[in-house]
Amino acid sequence: MVKAIFILLILLSTPLPSFSAEESGVYTAAADSDNVQRVELTAGSYFFKPEQIIVRAGVPVELVIRNESKVVPHNFVMESPEAGMDFSESLSGNGNLTVVRFTPTRPGKYPFYCDKKLLFFKSHKDRGMEGVVEVR
Ligand SMILES: [Cu+2]
Question: pTM for this structure?
């Protein structure tokens, strides 16, 4: 009984988890020794995680996207040619990786999303499969 109370006290004294930037879906990239900003991204039905990626302008970025989806097709789309990010890449599923490389040229916030849509259903983007590259 004493032991049970002791454990309870420990549980009660444990501070509630605070939400760090990581948990809220923001990732700040740091350049590796070869001066590439590598970012791991997870895609699934219907999300990208992290949802916000912060990178530096003028430094190459390599996005390594793991698509967890087994059946539903997804892609990764950016339409910001003015900032050096203009592509539509199909994502290989089943946990496979797709690598997207670009060099952001201009500070700002640029959306990325999946543009897949099945018949009359809501698009994946509208279901939350979207995010932002913030270039600083
Ligand atoms: Cu999708």
Answer: 0.81
